[in-house]
Amino acid sequence: MIAKRRLGSTDLQIAPLVLGGNVFGWTADRAASFAVLDAFVAGGGTMIDTADVYSAWVPGHEGGESERMIGEWLKVSGRRDDVLIATKVGMLPGEGGEKLAPARIAAAAEASLQRLGTDRIDLYYAHQDDDAVPQDAVLEAFARLIDAGKVRVIGASNFHGERLKSAVDAAKASGLPRYHVLQPEYNLVSRHRFEGELQDYCVTENIGVLPYYGLASGFLTGKYRSKDDLGQSVRGGRMTELLDGNGPAVLAAMDDVAAETGATLAQVALAWLMAQPGVTAPIASATRVEQLVDLLPAMQLELTKEQLDRLSAAGA
Length: 316
What we know:
Mean pLDDT: 96
Low-confidence stretches: none
Oligomer: single chain
Order of helices and strands: EEEHEHEHEHEHEHEHHHEHH
Shape: globular
Radius of gyration: 19 Å
């Protein structure tokens, strides 16, 4: 049995790994997407993360492909009440304006609900900050969705510390719903965007943290050990900076911990994240069931304090 964690101060309880849905309808076709989703739930997973903009960057796509795929799976599988669905608004232009314009939030939520084939979004994120719209107005738009029963909890993705704090302060001052969740980039080789003031604030305010890029686009699986490995994937070019920086030292420390625990590098990387203050669950994607099978055991991998400290020191 996978022990669930409370998501911040909300009443949502989730398993300590969130399934990233960015690949569904893009690098994972219908059969692969359904197989991964089935395996995730069978393995004890509870939350699926997507966004309306997934995968608008692909030629011929317009956004909504991931939500639509998840919606088809929910209908076929009948598992809507067994999972929590997180999606986002703010990066896909459309009806009502752009980013976090209140009319855009309202229209985007309706479109997401339709694609997902559901009557509620369990966790609805502002996908990115929008300083062109007063934060009160953004929160009021989310409040209307919550009051209508269409959204349960709201979160912020890619927010800097100052803006997250001002949004929470605005919510408290106006009696509006506040952001209960933060989704930052955070992993063993990319820590500066979260650690420090932002992490401390999330811990103090009991804001649940669900980091993305938990495996650093595959680097932390050990796939890229030298520059000769960079041609293995379209993401390879991004790894040069990591190989020139602290990446090799982190991989060496992970190799040692993996040997001690019998875990894979991916499991070690995710277990380290799960043990960090404020973190409820990292997000990870899989295009094949075999990849997912490698990720799921991280939910039950407990690293010792000495192992966690060693990994942290290597990535410092």
